Automatic annotation (TrEMBL):
<feature type="transmembrane region" description="Helical">
    <location>
        <begin position="24"/>
        <end position="43"/>
    </location>
</feature>
<dbReference type="GO" id="GO:0016052">
    <property type="term" value="P:carbohydrate catabolic process"/>
</dbReference>
<keyword id="KW-1133">Transmembrane helix</keyword>
<dbReference type="GO" id="GO:0009253">
    <property type="term" value="P:peptidoglycan catabolic process"/>
</dbReference>
<dbReference type="InterPro" id="IPR017853">
    <property type="entry name" value="GH"/>
</dbReference>
<dbReference type="InterPro" id="IPR002053">
    <property type="entry name" value="Glyco_hydro_25"/>
</dbReference>
<keyword id="KW-0472">Membrane</keyword>
<dbReference type="GO" id="GO:0003796">
    <property type="term" value="F:lysozyme activity"/>
</dbReference>
<dbReference type="Pfam" id="PF01183">
    <property type="entry name" value="Glyco_hydro_25"/>
</dbReference>
<comment type="similarity">
    <text>Belongs to the glycosyl hydrolase 25 family.</text>
</comment>
<keyword id="KW-0812">Transmembrane</keyword>
<protein>
    <submittedName>
        <fullName>Lysozyme</fullName>
    </submittedName>
</protein>
<dbReference type="GO" id="GO:0016998">
    <property type="term" value="P:cell wall macromolecule catabolic process"/>
</dbReference>
Length: 255
């Protein structure tokens, strides 16, 4: 006669607890995913509401974007584009001149920008910009992008010597091209320089916050990875808005 297997009395209890624990983990993970998805959709809805107050949108482009059809950008509702021309004293963007020349057949207002370097002289940076850009400076003000890296941060820019160097480059560009200059930076950097002589220049803020920006702010880069259609494919580009109405844009961009 086959002997019957007798399991300990706690075996079923253990299995029930283990199954209950698995169900709890599953529903906990599901709840977390629902909260994350809800937060993401809520944020997108909030940002779309904010964006509805800004009618004028634009993009910034560099060589990483390859060949760009500027008519396509215009058809997607963009009204301006900024092209990277140079960085520091030696770097030039491979696509700048060809992009600029092709953009002239579109209805986009065009601007160019230089990426500032802390480690090379303002005169050398100006010469690099002048050689590459020539008179392809566009209709919009020239932008100088000031970023941070390593020890070159917002605190560093509170010192008088770095401020003087940045001001020297901005002055050289303004005098040579007889154009307005915009300083493109983060809010932290702008706080470091807005009590200096640089405060007389308008700013282009790189921030996801679209609300309560002062009249000192001309552009706001609200999304570093906005999706646009270029050459039949989706690409991500930094997207910006003009801090004003359509009527103000027309007046400001034609000065």
């Amino acid at each position: 006669m086959k002997r019957r297997r007798i399991e300990p009395i706690y075996t079923n209890t253990y299995r029930q607890l283990r199954n209950r624990s698995r169900r709890l983990r599953f529903f906990s993970i599901l709840l977390i995913l629902i909260i994350i998805a809800g937060g993401w959709f809520g944020y997108r809805h909030y940002r779309d509401q904010q964006l509805s107050h800004y009618r004028v949108r634009g993009v910034t482009l560099d060589q990483a974007n390859g060949f760009v059809d500027f008519q396509q950008l215009s058809q997607q509702g963009f009204q301006f584009a900024y092209l990277r021309a140079t960085s520091g004293a030696t770097y030039t963007d491979d696509q700048f001149q060809s992009n600029y020349d092709r953009s002239q057949g579109s209805s986009l207002k065009m601007g160019v920008y230089h990426v500032y370097s802390y480690t090379t002289s303002p005169k050398a940076q100006f010469k690099n910009f002048e050689r590459e850009v020539g008179y392809r400076e566009g209709q919009l003000p020239i932008a100088v992008q000031v970023t941070t890296y390593g020890k070159y941060n917002a605190r560093y820019l509170r010192q008088s010597e770095p401020q003087k160097k940045l001001l020297q480059l901005v002055s050289l560009l303004q005098q040579h091209y007889d154009k307005r200059i915009i300083i493109w930076c983060t809010p932290n950097i702008w706080q470091s320089v807005n009590q200096t002589s640089l405060a007389r220049y308008k700013t282009w803020l790189q921030t996801s916050s679209l609300s309560h920006q002062s009249g000192q702010v001309v552009f706001i880069t609200y999304d570093e990875k906005a999706t646009v259609k270029l050459n039949g494919q989706s690409q991500t580009v930094p997207a910006s808005v003009f801090n004003g109405s359509q009527r103000q844009w027309h007046s400001w961009s034609t000065q």
